[in-house]
Write a structure and sequence with these properties.
Alpha-D-Glucose-1,6-Bisphosphate, Chain A, domain 3, Nucleotidyltransferase, domain 5, 14-stranded mixed sheet, globular, 22 helices, 740 residues, 4 domains, Alpha-D-phosphohexomutase_SF
């Protein structure tokens, strides 16, 4: 419903209690009430309003029903203006007053008026903050009754939950769709594929069957989190497909991010904080959004982390044999922008609750416990001794806008004018929400052009990736960022209080982290690409900090990478340097790190949207070289005259040290006798075709060479890496799509 209009709800059907409400004596002891079977202290009341006739002949009335022949039951003619919405509001006001007088502390209001519920939970507060003006500037027509409603609710102090109509469970026949196999982080396909009839329905049913099916079959409570990155089809899929399917399958409680918005890091934390069974996240991460772009769905487990391969394999197996899915027949008309709870009644007697929660507040409160916000705020706003540290932040029109404004602007004092592209948009403003030098080039240009900007940061579509840029456009590679944080954990409140158990990196990430681990005599784990592989290490307290070269950094505070956490970690390091008189400059930190440990030059070449057959051909040719032992010991000479001798090659595999699970075929590695390393792999995050990633890294100890640009230093290395895989010959491409 549009809250800008004094619209009319349809005439209500008469409501009556159902069998799942139990009758018992409660407060006050002399009266009998209906109680919520799932929460016996909650008293149930039914409210209703109606209006018949037209114009001057309209007659409106309201009713309150507490039970058969109950002395509190009310059926009255409405005084004043005769409208249906006023009658619905008056019924609720009457019920709350009665409950307050009667000493009731927990109340379930059953009403079919979404308008009244919205006024009580969201719209009324918004109108009050806006001097009782609507979004279009007009006066709120129901100002007085809504003010009375809000006043009665506040005065009563009653914990109120809103309940809705009975829903009929419907079992729909379906046929399986090929290829619903989750990749590195969920299932990603073109948006139009997910919009095909039955496609999303099948995948959601498969997730429920595989992830929580045993609990549902035993009628045990299942509590899930839902939300997404705000891309096209998130709201529609939540309202029309996912919530109805979850309710019909017996999920007892759903927590949904306001407006369907939840960053992936926030979702991980909320799952852990509220001890939920898991979460369904609607995101294709850094992939573009829109009708003609990409959509994605992933499942996170009860530890807040991505589903491990064992579970994703089970989801895929379910999708291949699925013949039906459960949903509800009636449209739910869920208002995703209204914070509050609604309880539904199913035809099988179950009473699930859907709660719209703040997307930001829990996560923002948690961040405050992990970092010294006072020190960071002093850094950003300045002090008598130092000018403000000017930070420029881009949300790339993804999910991070609300988090940027609440945490960085409202709590840490960042000027809101320095928060750009901070409005979540369904198509990310037509851009590619991938924080790298190609897709965030405008951010780089801004910091290059304005020498007063000390640091810039960008986040991807779902908020788990970050890019950091120093003054004058100094690029901090994710590999170096991880190593710098690892070397400065003593500057970060979270590690000061919890200690450091170990470190980990994805295999393609440069070995800069290994140098820090060696210096600190700590273990450094090397895992396949995909954050899910860090989860077991963190749960077993083997790893406290980890990262990927693909702009992902995080710690064991949650079980996802966390873009804002990485920025706050860097700001903590900068704040500490400010306090002890060291240069408060990103480039200085990195240069000092290289001087201490040496530099790993690193680059990644992405060839996006290749034909799948081309990607397979490239990998097959590399496999032949390795299997036939045609690389080891071979001397290669580049056009520039540089010689390389291959010392070792393999197809990376991983044995999890916690559960012993074995993961194979994770990318070809070629290591040369000077320590140079080439890695080749096909990405698992694309929605179609194939993306070839070629990684090159090598070590340099001479500080005099540390300032050489990566592409210049690695030119002969890159030349050989591309020649060996034959990417130009097979694809015809003379340049990559993205260079990192």
């Amino acid at each position: 419903m549009n809250d800008d209009l004094d619209g009319q709800d349809p005439l209500p059907t008469k409501l009556s209690p159902e069998e799942h409400y139990i009758s018992s004596n409660h407060v006050p002891s002399t009266l009998t009430f209906y109680h919520d079977a799932s929460c016996p202290r909650r008293v149930m009341v039914y409210t209703d309003g109606s209006c018949n006739g037209a114009h001057d002949d309209r007659r409106a009335g309201y009713g309150v029903y507490w039970g058969p022949n109950h002395p509190w039951n009310v059926s009255e003619r409405l005084e004043g203006e005769q409208t249906n919405n006023r009658a619905e509001i008056e019924a609720v006001i009457c019920a709350i007053k009665q409950a307050h007088i009667g000493g009731i502390t927990h109340l379930g209001i059953v009403t079919d008026s979404k308008f009244t519920q919205n006024c009580a939970t969201e719209w009324g507060q918004r109108w009050a903050r806006n001097a009782w003006k609507l979004a279009n500037g007009e006066d709120a027509k129901l100002r007085e009754p809504v003010k009375r409603l809000l006043g009665v609710i506040a005065e009563s102090g009653i914990e109120i939950i809103w309940m809705s109509q009975m829903l009929t469970i419907d079992i729909k026949p379906t046929k399986s769709f090929p290829g619903q196999k989750p990749g590195t982080s969920g299932l990603r396909k073109p948006t139009k594929t997910f919009m095909e009839h039955g496609y999303t329905e099948n995948f959601i049913q498969s997730i429920l069957n595989a992830a929580v099916g045993q609990l549902l079959n035993k009628s045990q409570p299942v509590r899930l989190l839902l939300g997404g990155d705000g891309r096209y089809f998130v709201r529609e899929s939540l309202q029309s497909i996912i919530i109805p399917i979850c309710l019909a399958n017996g999920v007892s409680e759903l927590f949904v991010g306001q407006n369907g918005i939840l960053s992936t890091p926030a979702a991980s934390f909320i799952i852990r904080k509220h001890q939920l069974d898991g979460g369904i996240l609607l995101t294709a991460s850094h992939n573009p959004g829109g009708l003609n772009a990409d959509f994605g769905i992933k499942y996170n487990c009860g530890n807040g982390g991505p589903a491990p391969e064992k579970l994703t394999d089970a989801i895929f197996a379910q999708s291949e044999k699925l013949t039906s899915y459960k949903t509800v027949k009636e449209p739910l008309n869920i208002q995703l922008d209204c914070i509050g709870s609604t309880k539904y009644t199913l035809s099988n007697g179950q009473t699930p609750i859907v709660t719209i929660i703040s997307s930001v507040s829990d996560y923002a409160d948690y961040m405050r416990t992990l970092f010294d916000f006072d020190a960071i705020k002093t850094l950003l706003t300045g002090s008598n001794q130092r000018e403000p540290f000017k930070l420029l932040v881009s949300g790339l029109n993804g999910v991070m806008g609300p988090y940027i404004h609440e945490i960085l602007c409202n709590q840490l004092g960042l000027n809101s004018e320095l928060a750009i592209k901070s409005q979540p948009l369904e198509d990310f403003g037509g851009g590619h929400p991938d924080p790298n030098l190609t897709y965030a080039a405008d951010l780089v240009q801004m910091i290059v052009a304005d020498s007063s900007i000390a640091m810039a940061a960008a986040f991807d579509g779902d908020g788990d990736r970050n890019m950091l840029i120093g003054r004058h456009g100094f690029f901090v590679s994710p590999c170096d960022s991880l190593a710098v944080i690892a070397d400065n954990t003593d500057c970060i409140k979270y590690f000061q209080e919890n200690g450091v158990h170990g470190f980990a990196r994805s295999m393609p990430t440069s070995r800069a982290l290994n140098l820090v681990c060696k210096s600190r005599s700590m273990q450094c784990y090397e895992v396949p690409t995909g954050w899910k592989f860090f989860g077991n290490l963190m749960d077993a307290k083997l790893c406290s900090l980890c990262g990927e070269e693909s702009f992902g950094t995080g710690s064991d505070h949650i079980r996802e990478k966390d873009g804002l956490w990485a920025l706050l970690a860097w700001l903590s390091i900068l704040a500490k340097r400010s306090q002890i008189g060291l240069p408060v400059d990103v480039e200085s930190i990195v240069m000092e790190h290289w001087k201490k440990y040496g530099r790993y030059f690193f680059t990644r070449y992405d060839y996006e949207n290749c034909e799948s057959s081309q990607g397979d051909e490239i990998m097959n040719e590399l496999k032949k070289l390795i299997d036939n032992n045609r690389i080891s010991g071979h001397v290669y000479t580049t056009v520039s005259g540089r010689q390389f001798v291959c010392d070792f090659c393999d197809n990376f595999s991983y044995v999890d040290p916690v559960d012993g699970s074995h993961t194979t075929n994770q990318g070809f590695r070629l290591i040369f006798n000077d320590g140079t390393r080439f890695v080749y792999r096909l990405s698992g995050t694309g929605s179609s075709g194939a993306t070839l990633r070629v990684y090159v890294d090598t070590y340099e100890s001479d500080p005099a060479k540390h300032t050489i640009a990566s592409q210049e230093y690695l030119k002969p290395h890159i030349e050989l890496a591309l020649e060996l895989c034959g990417v130009t010959k097979i694809t015809g491409r003379i340049a990559p799509s993205v260079i990192t």
